[in-house]
């Protein structure tokens, strides 16, 4: 095995998703010294898929693709994976519509017929009370959504703010938007930063939520935003050195 090193913390807490969205919002904690193959084996138990046909993708909190976890021998910690990110599982063993069947006729069944089968991913998740079939997790998810909405409602557009996100520097800026973001499926605060430390110009996936210069805009969770009297700093980025 090649000598891959863990370059970040010993453990990471991430969201797990699949292309069929059967899991709902599942958060898991993994040691960073496991290989990608070992991670796939753990995900087998969660998804009912096969590690031999599994492909993993890592997305950041803004739902942007960071990297593909393609090297089965590499350690999880050798990839730039941080708390709060999402690992997305694409498995051709589970998802027929991602395979090329050519002219082969596809079997179509109703949702009721699918529910009656015992060897499906849905049946596996229901038996093990995982994902959206875990009432406790669903209750916590609904509570979290309500809490985030309440926090977002209290944040006023135009307020000065400080943004503190794990594994990122503290940033100052101005609130430009606060509310539901369809493309991220949740309540977020749109911030125009004082420095070009953002990711965009106030738009996401083609929809403009607010306007600012490119790389000055970002969307963050309401709990990561503190409003207050934070004077705008004059960084004079055009100053010659």
Automatic annotation (TrEMBL):
Domain CAP-Gly: 179-221
Top-level taxon of origin: Eukaryota
PROSITE patterns: CAP_GLY_1, CAP_GLY_2
InterPro entries noted in UniProt: CAP-Gly_dom_sf, CAP-Gly_domain, TBCB_Ubl, Ubiquitin-like_dom, Ubiquitin-like_domsf
CDD domains found in the cross-reference section: Ubl_TBCB
GO terms (BP aspect): cytoplasmic microtubule organization; post-chaperonin tubulin folding pathway; tubulin complex assembly
UniProtKB keywords: Chaperone, Cytoplasm
GO MF: alpha-tubulin binding; microtubule plus-end binding
Localization, UniProt: Cytoplasm
Main location: cytoplasm
Cellular component annotations (GO), alphabetically ordered: cell cortex; cytosol; microtubule plus-end; nucleus
Sequence similarity: Belongs to the TBCB family.
Record-given protein name: CAP-Gly domain-containing protein
Organism: Brassicogethes aeneus
